[in-house]
Amino acid sequence: MSDAFAYAIAALLMVQALMRAPSALKGRRRKRSLWGAFAALSAAWLARTTLGRTFINDLGIPDLAYLVKHVLAITGICVLLRYITAVYATAEPSAHVPRTVRVSRLVHRIAARASLGTVIVMALVFTFVLDDVVADVPYFMGRHAGDPGLAIYMSLFYLYTAAAAAVCAVQWGGAVKQIPQRAVKIGMGMMAVAMVLAVVYALLRIAYVILITVTPVSEDFSLAQEAVTDTLLYTTFLLWGFGAIAPAFRAANDRVHTMTHLAAIHPLWRDLAQIEPSRIRQRPRRLLERFGPMAQLNKMRDLHSSYDDSPAARLHRYITEILDVILELSRHAPHDLAELARQRADGSTPERKRITAEALWIRAASAAYLTQPVGAPAPLPFDFGKNLAVEVPHFRAVSAAYTRTSADEGWEILEGASQHGAPAQA
Questions:
Q1: Residue 299 vs residues 22, 26, 283, 293: alpha-carbon distances, Å
Q2: Mind telling me which residue stretches traverse the membrane in this protein (predicted)?
Q3: 55: number of CA atoms within 13 Å, CB side?
Q4: Which of 163, 192, 166 is nearest to 177 (CA)?
Q5: Is the separation of the CB atoms in 325 and 278 below 8 Å?
Q6: pLDDT digits (tens, 9 = 90+) for 311-346
């Protein structure tokens, strides 16, 4: 049964690592840290299984699997500490900041050194201080009961675990009050409770290792202790693993929505980018664009460009560049072009007709850009939104209408523009 729990928790943590792999590959150090924490802790749980212990111990060093498991756990915890305290690492020092912030800054500075020091001392104790293994006892602590080296080794590990869990509990517990999203709030609360249980687990294990160092205990007591503390450990990681899914799921959901927006806006952005490439920071791909399959490949490369830090940044860039090109087109467009586009547009509702008119104006203004001199900006058929929340759905609708129109319609509208609407010479 313990193996089943270990595999389940390892799989849960590995799923978290895989969900964060794309942002880890393209993201900054902080995003890679969270991915590394889940990966290292998943590996630690695999080392805890019978198969994992057998594979590592077959290297010829007794109980090496336990040292590997503990080193992986410390590595994961260290990276996690660096992640959750990084938010305060670059803040300006101040005498008036809360104590939790000052502690977080201190933890961020010393986490790596403290972790490395703990691992080195534990490795030295494991190699030179621990007595020979009592092979017929099933548990690591039982095999070395009464050995002062065990008390040093395990106390170091559990003290490190308790301190790290306490920091995480304070950070996540404090964050619960500041998070507006209900699902994320519940997830953070679960993670905070998990860290409180981790502190209790570590303290119970420290008390137990000290007890078996100074006096023998019965087998029944040892088995009961293992059952209680293992239950605490399983509960801790299950709570933490499932709690972490809420923020990860929200991030993944946001990413999906952002990519959907990008795909919808891409046709409009691509055409405008080709008309006025000087306004575009990362131009659309055009490799063998007349070949159908390559057009789709070029689109995928645009949508997943490494130029931007994230899909959200790419979406913001698309919108900004669309607006910049539209403003440039207006300097070539006849002044009555917007009215002619409205007259030409049709639609089942006033809103649909308005969006179609905007798409037709872009088609006609693009034709004017190629044939008309620069002049005073012509009136636009729409107002710019104040933020992305307004502009994204607007340009999604315009892009959809744009794909339903043709360049020929734009030329026809331009040809119907009156001479009085032509822009003044620059």
A1: 19, 19, 11, 10
A2: 6-22, 34-51, 71-89, 110-130, 150-174, 186-211, 231-249
A3: 9
A4: 192
A5: no
A6: 888 999 999 999 999 999 999 998 888 888 888 888
Residue pair 158/128 in contact by the 8 Å Cβ criterion: no
* Sole residue written with tokens 């928790």: 9
Residue type, 404: R
Question: What is the per-residue pLDDT across 35-78, written as a single tens digit (0 to 9) for each?
Answer: 888 999 999 999 999 999 999 988 888 889 999 999 999 999 99
**Per-residue model confidence as pLDDT tens digits over 214-226:** 999 988 998 899 9
Amino acid of residue 193? V
Whether 326 and 371 have beta carbons less than 8 Å apart is answered as no
Q: Which residues of 239-269 are buried (b: 16+ CB within 10 A; e: fewer)?
A: bbbbbbbbbbeeeeeeeeebeebbebbbebb
- Give the rounded distance of the alpha carbon of 116 from its chain centre: 27
Q: Is the pTM of this model over 0.85?
A: no
The residue count for the chain: 426
